[in-house]
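Listing S7. Sequence submitted for prediction.
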Amino acid sequence: MIGIFDSGIGGLTVVRAVRSLLPEFNICYFGDTARTPYGTKSPETVTRYALENTRMLIERGARIIVVACNTASSVAFETLCKNFDLPIIEVISPAVEAALSDPRAKNIGIIGTRATIGSGIYEREIGKHSPEKKVFSIPCPLIVPLVEEGWQKRPETRMIIKKYLHPLKVRQIDTLILGCTHYPVVKDIIQSKIGKRVRVIDSSLAVVDSLARFLEKSPEIKARLGRGGTWTLMVSDVTEQFRKTAHMILNTKVELTHVRL
């Protein structure tokens, strides 16, 4: 099966994309709701959480891991690759690739958690491939808790997003990478506040597109993945709000399994 983990509910946007683009494969998702958010924690703590999450998914039969968390991808990816002998896909490189696929992209904006933005990972990845691009990064720490609380339709959320995006709008960016898998939940608000002319890169769609291309090039790994389109949703803390927001993201009734790490 495909194992996916995130700090909380945001990774369900990746589950949604897998179910849309790769519906035949089985999915096991873990949302670390008891320890969310990761973006405010130290790199050492996030790395420890990522190791525990990956180990747990492998024990449950995962044959490939998708790190559906930009914070964990930015600080723990190399450690995960060193500790586990199976394919691990992170969300940052696919989003960068998607942003750079349009030659008209000149001024690229990044929004993410403090940990992701503070790591400078997006600037380094873009610089390796297209050093001539201008990159502007803004931490948006309040968006994750707003999504986790189900405040997508609150006027406060629209106001906060507008405030966060203002410096990027002033710099006249043409491309905006959503550097957190929670952010696609409020993508429509982000698009409206940054302007229609700005191309918004949804990291959840980018990572699943990358996963699909990887599996096509790796038939032996593809053959080992369970088929049937089943999906299991596990969380480290069960809350009614998570259930409601998960229902909204996946557009179906969800069953949550409580897992203690």
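Caption to Listing S7: primary sequence and predicted structure tokens for the chain studied. The first strand starts at residue 2 and ends at 6. Residues 2-91+205-258 form a domain with the Rossmann fold fold (CATH 3.40.50.1860).
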